[in-house]
């Protein structure tokens, strides 16, 4: 890197020094240089990811379990970040101080978007013999300069935080929604919603208050730079969990599906909750400073914001998902799988963008869009598109996740807006642990009062232990780093993420053993002592009809609406609407039912209607009703040709 | 759009007006607004693409052939661009003029990268009661302002041209390389290389010279702003062809594979050639102005540049492809298809980035990387990864291509740096047609002197007719729009692309009929009069061994190296190196041969070694050696479960 940059500097220097009058050419050279630096940054991350992939392979091959791929990505990122920081010390950026022109009329209190500079104007520039022609150049707003000396590092291996929210997060969150195991998710809906909604808010409040208390006890310079809203914002951003590592180990060791569903479901939803919560806190800040004191109004407004934005975003996502389902049901676009897949991807991304444009939360929209796409649209897709969308988002999710963790490592050293404050960091670590405890234990106690198979103590400990912090916390922290308080938050958040992912992730296997949480396939049949025995269902088919009594009432109500109205409307599933709707709506029902729906047998219903064959499910490999190999060994060949046909079926 | 922006302006206005001292909050609000405008831009393109996908489906369904999807994308883009241009008239950007601070020391002839503005300093800002605190803000270099009034449109639905080169083009070019039908490509290698290398250079020279002549005849103001190098650059950027539409029709109508290979192969390579050529011209400009007159040196330098950059880029791409092949051959990463696919994607993108960082041409590297990946790595991949990479790049290519054509349409109205000059546009149209003619007819004549089955006249006319211009021309034109000359080139290029894609693309079917080029499957067996009869090979298996005599000598030499050295080294193909290398290299050969390679039978060789089952090939659907349906109808079920297993095999 160092060599490249120096080489580039020399080139640029030569280009600039040798020129006659060609300012245009020098500008071209500068643009080329900037492009190469961009490419170099991308290349660094590409190489880091490649290295991560290869190391993961070695780890999987050698069955190393004490370090997960995300932990690995973070560690590689840290190493490379340190190298970039301390090895490459080129000062690329040239700058001058400017003043407004004397006759400028401008009366907003925010700085202007653009500056226009006449160059070289009256400045003395050493251009050799020929004079440099006067031209006007545009400069666009970049941000506040807090620490003037750190300007130079600005170009090194950092990205615009907007990239996280527009490019990196959507596929991760969509994939989570697309892969949510809906059966177990709905069975534990009560617990999941409690932990994710109430728990996250509670955790944010507790962390915010404790941090505010801590900050007050610290040196005055620090105390004055944090308001209560700042620490509350920190509470909101550090509350969402990202237990990737733990879940990977769960899959590997085949841990109880309900525990898996609770941890996964909670982590998916609390990302969304934290994002909306942090937005509401920022809006509160805005409103509070406007009204100048009406705290109650502002507080109620923030709660209204939270509920309104969350439910509207949910609605946008769900509607886009349902719209895609309708499109794929009532058109024959499935005859062209490429068009179908493109439509699927575009509609899902549109859900994100629509929400963002309407000042809602795109991540929440894309999450619920993913859930709807999996629940409805997936059933209408051609098998080629099913495969393609599944594999596409799996790959995107893998790359995006590892990229974000690599970036967390690298940015620890290269991001110019870090502020190391040991007191704040220590307080952050302690309160984030406390916040997780406040989320899990009291709420589990309350839940157990009304829950038939209570959440046993070792499961509670495991829930507590799964409170790793990850991508969402980091993305929220890096989004806004204008003030010193926010910069201290970013540093603390980065450190918490790194520590939890590497250390807690690495210790997950031991925690499972220590807490005596049963693992392994043998658990499916033998562990009768397990309190979840009677809700466990080992085949994806709903053999659990008998356990309906244990489902939450909400889940039961939803199940009725879903199977009688939504599924027949949005997919080719039976029974058709003509059988489920009341008599007076039959004409409408007839219009909304496809021939396919009337004519198909129960066999194909079973096939298309199953939620379970959707996602990569290492816990329950899809049972092949007929094993082709048993009937005719030559089928290995068939499999290949079937794939060939599917691939070329465009 | 208009509504959203106005609504957003009001919100921002309120936020700014109502605040007390909170400049930070106003800045937050401004950042939010900018983010929403970004999202809106993306949403516009997402909706346009969705609309395009749906319309394509309708067209395919109704068998409309007079408009291809790219033409459709352009037209939709034009309509929406016009709406944005004339309906939305909000002026979002605030700006002030600035002067350097009096004590500034700066002596470079290029404008600085950054400006630092103390705000509000001594300016009067109406912030109500509270004073606005003085802060330092950073502004980064954006570009030259040519037309001051057009500032306002800057934010509307335009993207940084760098995005084309770093994000949009690589997947398109990689896909082209990954899908190149190598058999027919190598069989027509001589013609393809002649058209792509010699022809493109010739075309650029002819167009450049003619344009320079035309410009001299025009009003003096115009003549003075174009140098010969400018027009030569125009020649280089308008020379590459992009006959997507024509090729899609070829596939549909099953036109002769050799004609297909020539047109596709030429269009793939001439993109690369034109890119390197335009770079060499720019370097020439640089060198010429440095030496101040040594034209011969500069000219030879440019030729050296061209050859050096092209072959080094080719080398980088090919090496990365071979490295991936080695990685997938000698590790067992194929046991984890997700890791394998990720590795494949990352290595391919790294090829692009390495070339860009080394000041080579990433597009050329990624093209040859794609060819190597298809030729070697593909054979080592697990069937899951084959499928996934194929489908992934197919989808990315589809989305990227349609995005670029939509953008060409929209930017016609929204891009601020257009310069409409009717004379230049007319001259551009005429010379680009002449340039294509100079490329095809004389070179075909020369080729026919030494070519066994000569290129018949109607094929030459079809080659001439396939000279549509597309993505590469546009990307090159929009890359640099600093001067008025470059802006006139962008406008002319956009118009040529739009006209050729919509009109020529629409007329392709008629052209085929008019030129009596045989179409249809019946041609496979019956058209004995066809001059290509004896090189046609209707099954992908190499039944054409007897026609080796007609292959170019280059292709034969390459074939020997490939099958005796490269394939055994890089893939699991037989014969192994132990059989092909001379005796003294046996120990080395033994190390480089896998157990798999020794043990596999000829059967599996045939399967993994076939080039033909790679890409979506509507012309030759892959023959299924055994049709599962004929043996046992219940296999429909098996197919689904096989897919399920494949998907969960991670």
From TrEMBL, chains A, B:
One BP term from GO: regulation of intracellular pH
Protein name: Sodium/hydrogen exchanger
Annotated region described as Disordered, given as residue ranges: 525-551
Compartments, record wording: Cell membrane; Recycling endosome membrane
Topology relative to the membrane: Multi-pass membrane protein
Keywords noted in UniProt: Antiport, Cell membrane, Endosome, Ion transport, Membrane, Signal, Sodium, Sodium transport, Transmembrane, Transmembrane helix, Transport
Location (main, coarse): membrane
Basic and acidic residues composition bias: residue spans: 531-545
UniProt lineage: Eukaryota, Metazoa, Ecdysozoa, Arthropoda, Hexapoda
InterPro entries registered for this protein in UniProt: Cation/H_exchanger_CPA1 (IPR018422), Cation/H_exchanger_TM (IPR006153), NaH_exchanger (IPR004709), NHE-6/7/9 (IPR002090)
Chain segments annotated as transmembrane: 42-59, 71-88, 163-180, 192-212, 232-250, 298-326, 360-378, 398-416, 422-441, 494-515
Stored NCBIfam families: b_cpa1 (TIGR00840)
Molecular function, one GO term: sodium:proton antiporter activity
A family per Pfam: Na_H_Exchanger
Family in the record: Belongs to the monovalent cation:proton antiporter 1 (CPA1) transporter (TC 2.A.36) family.
GO CC annotation: plasma membrane; recycling endosome membrane
Residue ranges constituting the Cation/H+ exchanger transmembrane domain according to the UniProt record: 53-511
Domain of life: Eukaryota
Species this chain originates from: Spodoptera litura (Asian cotton leafworm)
Signal peptide interval: 1-20
């Amino acid at each position: 890197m160092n060599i490249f940059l120096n080489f580039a500097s020399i080139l640029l220097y030569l280009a600039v020094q040798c020129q006659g009058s060609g300012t245009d050419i020098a500008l071209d050279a500068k643009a080329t240089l900037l492009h190469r630096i961009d490419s170099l940054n991308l290349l660094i991350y590409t190489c880091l990811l490649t290295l991560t992939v290869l190391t993961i392979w070695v780890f999987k091959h050698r069955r190393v379990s004490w370090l997960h791929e995300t932990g690995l990505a973070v560690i590689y990122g840290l190493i490379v970040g340190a190298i970039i920081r301390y090895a490459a010390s080129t000062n690329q950026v040239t700058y001058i101080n400017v003043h407004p022109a004397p006759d400028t009329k401008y009366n907003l209190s925010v700085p202007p978007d653009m500056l226009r500079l006449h160059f070289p104007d009256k400045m003395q520039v050493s251009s050799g013999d020929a004079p440099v022609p006067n031209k006007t150049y545009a400069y666009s707003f970049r941000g506040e300069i807090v620490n003037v000396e750190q300007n130079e590092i600005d170009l090194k291996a950092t990205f615009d935080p907007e990239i996280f929210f527009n490019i990196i997060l959507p596929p991760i969150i969509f994939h989570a929604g697309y892969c949510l195991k809906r059966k177990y998710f709905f069975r534990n809906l009560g617990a999941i919603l409690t932990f994710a909604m109430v728990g996250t808010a509670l955790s944010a409040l507790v962390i915010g208050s404790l941090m505010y208390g801590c900050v007050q006890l610290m040196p005055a310079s620090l105390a004055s730079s944090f308001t209560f809203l700042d620490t509350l914002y920190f509470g909101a951003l550090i509350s969402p969990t990202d237990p990737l590592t733990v879940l990977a180990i769960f899959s590997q060791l085949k841990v109880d599906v309900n525990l898996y569903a609770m941890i996964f479901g909670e982590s998916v939803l609390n990302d969304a909750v934290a994002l909306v919560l942090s937005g509401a806190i920022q809006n509160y800040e805005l409103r509070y400073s406007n009204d100048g004191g009406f705290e109650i109004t502002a507080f109620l407004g923030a709660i209204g914001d939270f509920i309104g934005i969350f439910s509207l975003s949910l609605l946008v996502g769900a509607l886009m998902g349902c719209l895609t389902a309708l499109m794929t049901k009532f058109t024959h676009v499935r005859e062209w799988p490429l068009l179908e897949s493109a439509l699927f991807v575009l509609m899902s991304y549109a859900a994100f963008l629509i929400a963002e444009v309407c000042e809602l939360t795109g991540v929440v929209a894309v999450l619920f869009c993913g859930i709807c796409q999996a629940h409805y649209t997936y059933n209408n897709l051609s098998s080629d598109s099913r495969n393609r969308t599944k594999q596409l988002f799996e790959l995107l999710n893998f790359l995006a996740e590892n990229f974000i963790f690599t970036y967390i490592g690298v940015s620890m050293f290269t991001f110019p807006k870090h502020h190391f404050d040991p007191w704040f960091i220590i307080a952050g670590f302690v309160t984030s642990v406390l916040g997780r405890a406040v989320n899990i234990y009291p709420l589990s106690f309350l839940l157990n009062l009304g829950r038939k198979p209570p959440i046993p103590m070792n499961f509670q400990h495991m829930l507590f232990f799964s409170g790793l912090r990850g991508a969402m916390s980091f993305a929220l922290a890096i989004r806004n780093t204008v003030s010193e308080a926010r910069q201290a938050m970013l540093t603390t958040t980065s450190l918490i993420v790194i520590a939890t992912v590497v250390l807690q992730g690495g210790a997950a296997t031991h925690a499972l053993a220590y807490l005596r949480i049963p693992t392994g396939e043998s658990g499916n049949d033998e562990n009768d002592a397990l309190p979840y025995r009677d809700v466990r269902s080992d085949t994806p088919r709903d053999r659990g009809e008998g356990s309906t009594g244990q489902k939450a009432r909400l889940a039961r109500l939803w199940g009725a609406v879903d199977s009688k109205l939504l599924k027949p409307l949005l997919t080719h599933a039976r029974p058709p609407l003509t059988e489920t709707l009341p008599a007076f709506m039959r004409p409408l029902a007839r219009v909304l039912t496809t021939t396919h729906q009337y004519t198909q047998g129960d066999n194909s219903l079973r096939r298309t209607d199953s939620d379970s064959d959707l996602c990569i499910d290492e816990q329950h490999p899809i049972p092949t009703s007929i094993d082709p190999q048993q009937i005719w060994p030559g089928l290995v060949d068939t499999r290949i040709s079937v794939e060939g046909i599917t691939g070329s079926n465009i």
